[in-house]
Amino acid sequence: MKTISHNSTTSSVSVTAASGNDQPQLVATIVPDEQRISFWPQHFGLIPQWVALEPRVFGWMDRLCEDYCGGIWNLYTLNNGGAFMAPNRMTMMTKHGYCSMP
After folding, report:
1. What CATH number has the domain bearing residue 81?
2. Residue 59 needs a FRET pair 20 to 30 A away by CA distance; which of 1, 19, 24, 101 works?
3. Which residues are CB-contacts of 36 (< 8 A; sequence separation ≥ 6)?
């Protein structure tokens, strides 16, 4: 069984595997807006052409997801040193601007 919990105070999400042993918790913390500029070079700076990663992710999402039409993506760091980005499920971009999803 897996438990996922969200802490809105610290903007973090933790995932715990309940398998009977004491495995460490994986915690994802959202990157604040003022730190977004340093996110890519800090976590992906050793990858050649890291500057092109974000637009490529958007392009693949557009190709693979029929309902995707842009939007705000959140950046996350993990307590194990990892990092990832994910679209904000609550806001999607349309031709006319942003609209909230139900």
Report:
1. 3.30.70.3580
2. 101
3. 75
Say how far residue 24 (Cα) sits from the centre of its chain: 21
Provide the residue range defining the domain that includes 86.
Answer: 30-100
Q: Residue 1's pLDDT is what?
A: 44
Residue 25 lies in a domain: no
Confidence of residue 19 (pLDDT cuts 50, 70, 90): low
* Residues constituting the chain: 102
- Residue 6 domain-assigned? no
CA-based nearest residue to 98, from 68, 73, 66, 71: 71
**Alpha-carbon gap, residue 27 to 100, rounded angstroms:** 27
pLDDT at 42: 87
Instruction: Extract the tokens encoding 56.
Output: 């490529």
